[in-house]
Amino acid sequence: MEVISGMKTELIFTGTELLLGHVLNTHGQYLGIKLSELGIEVLYHTAVGDDWDRLRGVVRQALERSELIIVTGGLGPTTDDLTVEAVADVLGIKVVLDRKTLDSLYALYRNGGRAMPESNIKQAYFPEGAVILPNTRGTAPGALVEKQGKIIVLLPGPPFELTAMFENSVIPYLNRRMSGRQVMRYKVLKLTGISESAVQDRIKDLGGRGNPCIAYVARLGEIQVRVAASAGSPEAAEKILGDLFEKVCSRLEEFAFGYDDDLLEEVLGKLLKESRLTIGVAESCTGGLIGSKLTDVPGSSEYFKGGLIAYSNEVKTKVLGVPPQTIEKYGAVSRETAIAMAEGVRKLTGSDLGLAVTGIAGPGGYTEKKPVGLVYVSLSTEEGSECLEYRFPGKRAGVRHGAANAAMNMARRYLLANKSGRKTGESGS
Amino acid sequence: MEVISGMKTELIFTGTELLLGHVLNTHGQYLGIKLSELGIEVLYHTAVGDDWDRLRGVVRQALERSELIIVTGGLGPTTDDLTVEAVADVLGIKVVLDRKTLDSLYALYRNGGRAMPESNIKQAYFPEGAVILPNTRGTAPGALVEKQGKIIVLLPGPPFELTAMFENSVIPYLNRRMSGRQVMRYKVLKLTGISESAVQDRIKDLGGRGNPCIAYVARLGEIQVRVAASAGSPEAAEKILGDLFEKVCSRLEEFAFGYDDDLLEEVLGKLLKESRLTIGVAESCTGGLIGSKLTDVPGSSEYFKGGLIAYSNEVKTKVLGVPPQTIEKYGAVSRETAIAMAEGVRKLTGSDLGLAVTGIAGPGGYTEKKPVGLVYVSLSTEEGSECLEYRFPGKRAGVRHGAANAAMNMARRYLLANKSGRKTGESGS
């Protein structure tokens, strides 16, 4: 990733809900990380409500003191969405209709079989001369305006839409603008089934306190290790980065499921597609989370047949066919029950792989021997069944996401081993 | 909710780590909620790094436009902790040593069996005339300065220390200062199954552009309408708010599932618990999302038995018992299939209620007659089965969350009707 310092940057977050505390503002952190990876230093954050005068005042001030200004929120169809008009007003440029955006808004509604509400027309107006940034996850496009050496970027408020637009449109643009300056490169290794401190213990002797630099980010069920390096040329930065990153990867191989923007469910889906194998899931403590993640991926119907949310013991025995005496003898949260669930769902859904999770998500339901965080994950295939035991730290959400990712990772590792096995076989034949 | 307009307030967050994204800024949300409970309306947030000139600039600006200014962070012992000196400098007052604070710092270290590092002496200096706010959870005391009708509050950066100090010292102070002021009240209505623009179309003639004021927030599968009103007394503000809020609610009744901090899965869970009824889910396009949401709620095992993720037609027919000819004749995405799924899962899981979703989440899999966003939601009970058709706007995530919430809302509305029905019955008996 390419970077420049020297570009004075500030972020403006719009929305009265931010000031009232109804919504936790995560844009500052996300954009701060992304921009520093690009080598861009943010000097100010400002949050302001949906108020015409105050919003214009904040934008005016930003134009006076900064070169790159990113404004989030206020691109919706309602009358309290003022960003486009306020920015155009301060810049002294007109707001004009973008025919192409309007057509695609009409098409979006038409394809949905509905008439577009008149208020949505507003979302097709932009400051004159703006580059329109497509919104792959919502209706409101963003915009990028360059005027008098300043860059103003307007992004939608919903984090899900903002991150996609920033990564698809803004980062490539900023990369182009920044070329020739001091360059930073970074790479992210994504891990599951290991804690942040355990990750750190494994690699702390590798250095990474200056340039190159190692940083850690904990997400639900996932730890990210980011390695960054700066140099005078992309090649030099990549060399420094590559040397350290390789060492980091080799220390953490067994927990690593992907790089950069990889999602575990996408990585697993790709492997399933390549292997032409199908999967079914039996979920107790995750309650549908694995199925939900797998089906977040477009096209997942190719390899995901379905699954059972076996929350009660009755569903585990009657529908999945877990023998009641297994639950009686070993408990619902046990290696034996997990294996029976995985085998059961494989048969039930007619899938090649059966994946099962049973555990204690908390806050209740635990015993001294079976604490909150204890999870069994099992994979059943035509070759037999395996089971892994985990003890996840944290609260309910952490345990559930940890368990879901551990299960998906178990299937991923099986497919990977299987693939390389088959490849060896093929090359030998 | 009590809020005061009239006291212009802004928050300043100091710390370069905030701008770099190393730390998620949660102060804005915490203070926003607490201040609006006190009736104080926040107009701006600003985050700025540990930079002498920029920090002073931000404080100077705040003094020009606000009456109450809360500054967080920068009270530590290191050289990049500049808040006390910067604020004193802008206010034109001296920084003086507080003997009592210094003694207690020495005592703190002595009791810990260590010598106090010299750098900590800095933490005993405050703007002259400041009220010193004890820190019950760390070494850095806070401070409160009143000058020329302005109030400046300095709080430590660590959330754990900040919240204790705010609650122990600042809230009582502000309560005293605020008596007799203009008060704001607000209430949030939470909706599902309707788009933001359609919400606005239904209520735009009610006004709400000034006082009282209506605002909209879109979340995945959810629209929030916030109504706020200000007046000279809590009673008067509540009256103005209540009159408009009631009208808003009556226009949107069929889509409303809760108020303020309500989560749909919690509202539904509470109703199921009260009714002593259990629920099972059959999910096609939502792929486990409903189960995942329901089991996000601790204690959900009381009413949630489980469900089937029926992603493939094979699972729909073989496990759920949807007649193959139903799918053949009407399609997997149809009213008839949805009803058969709901009835099937009710039987399969032995639940009182069976809830089913089938639809086109996109981006692929659509036809002209069955566009992306078309979703059937069905509820099966001992009294029979019902089905609703939805056309959700947006992309895959929007459709899936919209569908999950619409399904949960269908069950919620049934339980509510059932409850009031039973109540009537009881009173008649």
How would you describe this structure to a colleague?
Two copies of one chain form a homodimer. The first copy, chain A, is of the alpha/beta class and 429 residues long. The first copy, chain A, has three domains: 9-178, 3-Layer(aba) Sandwich (Molybdenum Cofactor Biosythetic Enzyme, Chain A); 183-259, 2-Layer Sandwich (Alpha-Beta Plaits), CATH 3.30.70; 264-428, Maf protein (Alpha-Beta Complex). Helices cover 41% and strands 24% of the residues of chain A. Chain A is built from 14 helices and 17 strands. In chain A, strand 16 and strand 17 (384-391) form a beta hairpin. In chain A, helix 3 packs across helix 4 and helix 9 (264-275) runs parallel beside helix 14 (396-428). At the A-B interface, helix 1, helix 2, strand 2, helix 5 and strand 13 of A face helix 1, helix 2, strand 2, helix 7 and strand 10 of B.
